[in-house]
Amino acid sequence: MREALETSGRTRPGSPYGEWGDFILAEQLELQQPGADALCQRWNHRLSTWRRTRDGGFDPEAHRVVRIPEAPAKRFTVAHHYSASWPVVRLAYGLQRIDQPPGPGEPEGGRLVGVLALGVPMNTAVLNVFPDLVPLKESLELSRMCLLDSVASNGESWACARAFRDAATKGIRGIVAHADPVPRVRITTDGPSYVMPGHIGHVYGHGQGFAYLGRTRARRLVVLPDATVLNDRAAAKVRRDETGHAAVERRLIALGATARRTEEDGTRWLARALEEVGAAAMYHGGCHKYARTIGPHRTRLLLAVPALPAPRHRPPSPSPFTPEKRRSHQMSHGLSPTGAKILNANDDGLVAGHPAALAKLTSDGLVVPHTADGGTHWMTEDGWTALDAWWKENRGPSALAEAPGILRKLPGRQHEAVLTAARRPDQNIPGRDNRACRAGETWFRGSTLRKIAASGYAAIRPEPYDNGPVTWEKTGRPLYLTEAGRLYARQHGNVDVRRRRVVVIACGEKKLPDPGVNEYGNPLPGHPAGELYIDDYHRSLRAASDALTDPALIFIASALHGLVPLDRRLYPYDVTLKDERAVTPETIRWHTARLGLDDADVIFLGGQDYTALLLPSVPHLHAPLAGGMGDQRGQCARARDEADVREAWWKKAATLHNEYAAR
User: Fold this and answer.
1) For residue 16, is pLDDT > 70?
2) With 50 as the cut, is the pLDDT of residue 316 above it?
3) For the residues 113-135, what does the mean pLDDT come to?
4) Residue 34 Ramachandran class (φ > 0 left, ψ -120 to 50 alpha, else beta)
5) Which single residue of 134, 231, 249, 647 has CA 20 to 30 Å from 303?
6) Are residues 126 and 190 in the same domain?
């Protein structure tokens, strides 16, 4: 895998992170980051980059692959690999440029331009795909493959062939490799920052003879602000105070967590530390898994599972945030209702059904056989695309919202989930990663969320970097009620739920002082945004907003941070909208999209400068305050004390929303 970004651009532990403090997982983004040699960027345009040597391709005469000590291999990988980490390795190989001198600390023989590491997987069960081989003795994982961008096209295949040839002489006969298709993206004021590119393993399945074995199980990831993942084993060390917990604690403290108190148990401290650093729990659909045998008589070794067609990248679609209207969902899917029902009932891509229906789906290239008798099948990439298109044309949220009469009642758990969301101020259906789960409130499993998303009663919110339509199954983002879901709750739950009522208030000039450091010299957490601003004008805005809506639906328009919730911790700052560091309209647009303000009645309390900043992103915004600060404080006092004033404001906000939606 190529290095994801230039070293100077990678976020390191302890560095300040983005305005929202979280990272997003999204699949198969179209990255545009040309390196030293544009020919080697396989994930740049999804096009083949094979070139003859004379045309700029890889020159085998100028390179060699040798086994190298672990120390220089580790230094190289930590510096250039997107994970910035080094696993447990049995065999390390270096790709050297023999016509260039070695760098400081590098092995003799030439400049080190790549490293391949065969090591121990986190779960040795992944090596069971080779039933005739002894795990760790005769089979290993390709743990790292990192080449500089200066290495021309086809360098990976050439280097792997030489490394595998040498590994076979050491008794290794099977290799397993994984490809993570989910990039880590950090939202900053300058736009999305791609920390890890995501790939489907094209170099394995189409360049080195690996067999594609499908995807590993879906799982929950805890993503830290430096875009690294806190794996379950590391978290367990802290919770149980096992050997190695101190290193994990130092890692979190470097990211901004307060040190663990003497009497504090590991479980409580870990929960608090993850909250303080802004860790995000994300859904990961699973890595692509590949395997191959090496050495003499390798064709005699069998795999324990059948090989599947290797995935391929689809041409990227235009961004939904461009003026052009998306039409990819209008593709002809060719699915019958029976076929759509079979695909929709999939279990992580595994489907079953009537033999005739499965035969039709197989002939259309939407599924491939999984078992020898043809009883179960795997969905292909075209199958997923066809299912998405079928739902958009037949059972999307807009169709449900316009359906006349009484909506059909959902099964018990799905029915309960929709009504639970309707009673929440944010109209979110809480899943396992939601705060409601951690607080002991009602939450719902992924199977329930998947079915509700498919029904159109709830939907995820778009992100500015989405490369085409995305689904809950691919992203795991929070689900929020649609208009159809609110209609269902009114009909079947007698819940008077309407569009959310969101209030945005301007920040204040006077702020609390910096909280300082603790006894260990580590910075104390910042103040909650709802407590940071202490001037009289802001307090009058806040008092009115508390009377207008629920605290969960109040956001502060910060001149530095954009739209922030009341519980987000901030440090004092001295920035106005006229400063160079001030938040940009583009950032405001990202924030309003993430908050789903297009599906909310919105009132803004503040001055005209903030109103002008918000209107391009929230054209239905209602800004009722007028006059100077004294006049506005008086209007806020009336709204705080008089229900008629508040209701008149909300009526105007709803009218503006309806007028804009009708355009």
Assistant:
1) no
2) no
3) 91
4) beta
5) 231
6) yes
Tell me: the pLDDT tens digits for 416-445? 999 999 999 999 998 877 777 777 788 888
Q: Give the whole-angstrom CA distance, residue 257 versus residue 273.
A: 5
380-to-133, 218, 355 alpha-carbon distances in Å: 30, 17, 18
Cα 80 from chain centroid (whole Å): 22
Are 273 and 153 in a shared domain? Answer: no
Q: Is 64 exposed, middle or buried (0-12, 13-18, 19+ CB in 10 A)?
A: middle
The reply to whether 124 and 185 lie within a common domain is yes
Same domain, 48 and 173: yes
For residue 342, give both structure tokens.
């079979």
- Number of domains, the chain: 5
Taking alpha carbons only, the member of 516, 489, 483 closest to residue 424 is: 489
Paired residues of 179 in beta bridges: 288
The reply to whether 191 falls in a domain is yes
My answer on whether 226 and 237 are in the same domain is: no
User: Region 31-50: what's the mean pLDDT?
Assistant: 39
* φ, ψ for residue 48, nearest 5 deg: -65, 140
Domain containing 262: what range? 232-277
pLDDT tens per residue, range 260-280 = 888 788 888 988 888 888 787
3-state helix/strand/coil string of 586-629: HHHHHHHHHHCHHHEEEEEECCHHHHHHHCCCCCCCECCCCCCH
Q: Which of 118, 139, 140 is nearest to 70 (CA)?
A: 118
Residues near 612 by Cβ (< 8 Å), separated by ≥ 6?
A: none
Residue 122 token pair: 């986190």
Interval 218-272: pLDDT, tens: 777 788 877 778 888 888 889 888 888 898 999 899 888 889 888 788 888 988 8
Structure-token pair, residue 294:
């090496």
pLDDT value for 54: 64
The two tokens of residue 442 are: 């009602």
Tell whether 513 and 632 lie within a shared domain. yes
